[in-house]
Amino acid sequence: MVNESEPYISVVEKKPAKSSLHNQVLSDALTFITLPVFSALILIAILLIYDMNQREPLDPVVYYFFIAAVLVVIFLSARLNYELHNRERKQVILPLQQMSMAARAIQYGNYNIVVDHYSNDELGQVCDSFRTMQTYLRNTIAERAHANTSRKILFSGIAHDLRTPLTAIMGYTEALQLGLGKTEEKRTQYLNSISTCADDLSKLIDELSLYNKLSTSRIICHPHPINFSKVIHTFIDEDKDYLLSRQVNVHFDTDDSLIAMLDEKEFQRIIFNLLANTIKYRSKDTSDVLISLKKKGTMAEFIYQDDGPGVPTEKLSHIFEAFYRTDEARSKTSNGSGLGLAIVAEIITAHKGRYRAENENGLKLIFEIPLAEGSTI
């Protein structure tokens, strides 16, 4: 019974077309068989014609000549057989052996066996397809291994960051239940600590929810043409009092004419996370931040640079991963969930942009966002 919900595909059986490789093998075989036989028939015919025209018995020299001719034919046949075998070995047998070895190696996770046969016939096409499959499998396995590692880090980070405030809440709650808070001041201190840990948990859950939606593309950014510099300045102006209270000085070097494809709300979340990161991980009481904006081809290059301690070079490529922290000592949830830059990376990706990190007198984060058509005014 045909499932009507699935498309019906009609398959018409066709006779397989004779391939060029098949024709080549057949031609070689026919050459090997017919040439010696045809040569021998010609010799026999010559001998018979000569014998019919002679009344006397054949001279021994003729027999010797005939024997020599037959030996030559046998030699040529053997030589042709040798050449044919070598040609088929190089063009068919060896490539098939290589593919067989490579296929067996793939079973054991080795994708590096080389199949180095290149030709324009069907076997060459099969080898090309096999190499493409090898590359695809190698890349897929590498991506899956990286995804598994990232997932382990993610789950480990979630477990750690949930456990830390929960442990504190349970500890303070147990202390209150046991009557250890004998003074009003002590009870208030315990309750404030519980409230702080609960706030940390709430923020962590909110960030986890946002990161999950971003990473699974359930939040779709809606970029539209907008003045890039204006988006940045508007957000900084609105948070000016907060930045002054945290002694963060923001400096600008922006091209005010760039029109980029931005979701203003989501991009302001990026700026907020970057500033929060600077404040959390700085090594002194004040921070200087330089925000640069310039045109780079069809992209707007947004650079955020602070004067903090920076990041070890070997760890730069990991800072956009969820729950990744460069300093294990900064593992308290109150010091950050480890999701800030991961959320930034997902939002940039949703804008069809690119990102990278460098060290230059502090941490330098470089983002590229597509410009709108007619991006300057």
Fill in the keyword field for this structure:
8 helices, disordered N terminus, 377 residues, 7 strands, 7-stranded mixed sheet, Helix Hairpins, alpha+beta, Heat Shock Protein 90
Describe this structure in words.
Helices cover 57% and strands 14% of the residues. The protein is α+β, with helices and mostly antiparallel strands and 377 residues long. The chain has three domains: 20-117, no CATH class; 153-215, Orthogonal Bundle (Helix Hairpins); 224-376, Histidine kinase-like ATPase, C-terminal domain (Heat Shock Protein 90, 2-Layer Sandwich). Strands 1, 2, 3, 4, 5, 6 and 7 form a seven-stranded mixed sheet that branches. Helix 1 (20-52) runs antiparallel to helix 2, helix 3 (122-177) runs antiparallel to helix 4 and helix 7 (264-281) runs antiparallel to helix 8. Mean pLDDT is 78; it is low at 1-19 and 328-335.
